[in-house]
Design a protein that fits this description.
The chain is an alpha/beta fold. The protein has a single domain (16-272), classed as TIM Barrel (Alpha-Beta Barrel), CATH 3.20.20. It has helices at 16-25, 37-45, 57-60, 72-85, 103-115, 131-138, 155-158, 168-184, 196-205, 226-229, 245-248, 251-263, and strands spanning 29-33, 50-53, 90-94, 121-125, 144-149, 188-192, 210-213, 221-224. The protein is globular. The structure holds 3-methyl-2-oxobutanoic acid. Residues 33, 52, 54-56, 94, 190, 192, 213, 223, 225 line the site of 3-methyl-2-oxobutanoic acid.
């Protein structure tokens, strides 16, 4: 028998304002990816604050070797399904590869993710070069998360998934990117595969909440790919990943364990950081 993923309990949904309040109060923000209604409901029930429909779906759902082939229609399909499973968590969706190369195209695709997919924020990769686009989108009502550090959509230029910002020049460039994105109006920043010390510097100078993946513990929140948390991702396990299913016993225990570990800052531990 099928039942609705939603309960009848009234809840206050997470918003951009409550995420800012969490940063101000020093409450770590727990974020996870999800791609469908059933997992979204589990992730939401565990107390996750932000759910990202990531273009990582290309790898973990579609079995591709990068995020590059993922389309806007793929994103909308998974976003709409995920939205149906959520009650409290804030839904963010990735703008996939080359879907935001031009402003008119970006606003059309960002609006589709919000109107057809139910997203409340879009995430896009890139630093200072995206500042004008961020201003264009946010000033037209599309909240944006700026994704810097390792940018998987650039994989064919980078040649591999590596830690970014390791030398002082690269670290300075990343700080400049973060500053430019904040000034342009982003509502969130996401740092991927960044040395913990650099992520801490960026978090300190940021004007918006900073979420990290492989970016150490001195950020405002953590995000992981759901299938890494459940230990079922295909291929090489990234250093920052932790399988919470082993300790959690079942899916809901694993997800609650993840949220708790983020809140009490026991995840990430030193072995998950660069
Ligand atoms: O696509 C994704 O899942 C992401 C996370 C790695 C943050 O961008």
């Amino acid at each position: 028998m099928y039942t609705s993923a939603k309960t009848s309990q009234p809840v206050t949904p997470v918003s951009v304002t409550s995420l800012r309040k969490m940063r101000e109060e020093g409450t770590p923000i727990a974020c996870l990816t999800a791609y469908d209604a059933s997992f979204a409901a589990q992730v939401d029930a565990a107390g996750t604050d932000v759910v990202l429909v990531g273009d990582s779906l290309g790898m973990v759902i579609q079995g591709l070797d990068s995020t590059v082939p993922v389309t806007v229609d793929d994103m909308i399909y998974h976003c709409r399904a995920t939205a149906r499973g959520l009650e409290r968590a804030f839904l963010m969706a990735d703008m996939p590869f080359a879907s935001y190369a031009m402003p008119e195209q970006a606003i059309r695709n960002g609006a589709r993710l919000m109107q057809e997919g139910g997203a409340r924020m879009v995430k896009l990769e890139g630093g200072s070069l995206q500042a004008e686009l961020v201003y264009f989108l946010t000033s037209r009502g599309i909240p944006v998360c700026g994704h810097i550090g390792l940018q998987p959509q650039f994989i064919h230029r980078l040649g591999g998934y590596r830690v970014q910002g390791k030398d002082e020049a690269a670290a300075q460039a990343m700080m400049d990117d973060a500053r430019a994105l904040c000034e342009a109006g982003v509502d969130l920043l996401l740092l991927e595969c960044v040395p913990a010390a650099l992520a801490a510097r960026i978090t300190e100078m940021s004007t918006v909440p900073v979420i990290g993946i492989g970016a150490g513990g001195d950020v405002d929140g953590q995000i992981l790919v759901l299938y890494d948390v459940l230990g079922i991702s295909i291929g090489r396990k990234p250093r920052f990943a932790r399988d919470f299913l082993a300790s959690g016993g079942d899916i809901s225990g694993a997800l609650r364990g993840y949220v708790e570990a983020v809140r009490e800052r026991s995840y990430p531990a030193a072995e998950h950081c660069f």
